[in-house]
Amino acid sequence: MKKILIVILLAFVVLFGVSILLKNLSLRRITARLVSLNTAEIKELHYRLNMLGFIPVGEAVIYKEIPEEYDGRKMYHLNASAFTYNVFSGFFSGKAEVDSFVDTTSLNPVVFRQKLFVKNKYDITKEVFYDQSLGVMTIAGVKRIIPPGTKDPLSVLLYLRRMDPQGLKEFDININTNQKTYSLKGGGEINSKSINEKPYQLIKLKADIRRRDKNPYHRSSLSMLLVRVSENIPVKIDVFSGGFFLEAVLMDIR
User: Fold this and answer.
1) N or C terminus: which one in the chain shows less Cβ crowding within 10 Å?
2) 167, 60, 32, 198 alpha-carbon torsion, rounded to 10°
């Protein structure tokens, strides 16, 4: 029995080591490709979702913002989706779709929509409307007060992508898509690098997500690795919440 446990432990260590090595090689490859591309031509960012940092459980796609009209105003239409692999469908199966219309100047949301499905648990559709001038958001007919510049998750990603690197050294962003307003507060470390004599910046962000009302519960942490040529493109996103660690690693660019 002891020998079996040792073999299992060694196999786990080898699997973990190989996974980390492959991930690092993939990050170097995708970084080199990003630096060589015109980021304006990128239409889709494809991520692999890893539970605990090395167990692949699904994929996510972030689509490039599209200029559209909404309610007679020019907006950016943002969209993203995610799903779990079929191999896990026996005990967990889920998918999510989110989209948002945001102001082209402030990048503040006007409407946010979410569809979330988890097999044998729930199937949720949510729509949130924001009136930034009045400081009010409406969900399921209920109005809630929000701070100026409150964002949803998609508009936060676009905001971080567009932000000047100096602004990423210290930031505090309001987020609300439900009831309480959360703060995404953190800072970044910026390093100048180059690949094949092409310069870029590597930005390491760390942030805490917590409620503005200082409630000690519902706290999460977030770290991001961004590659900047003309925009800040996330190549790795780590989220730690409620004892659960999920990692998104950029695997493909289209």
Assistant:
1) N
2) -30
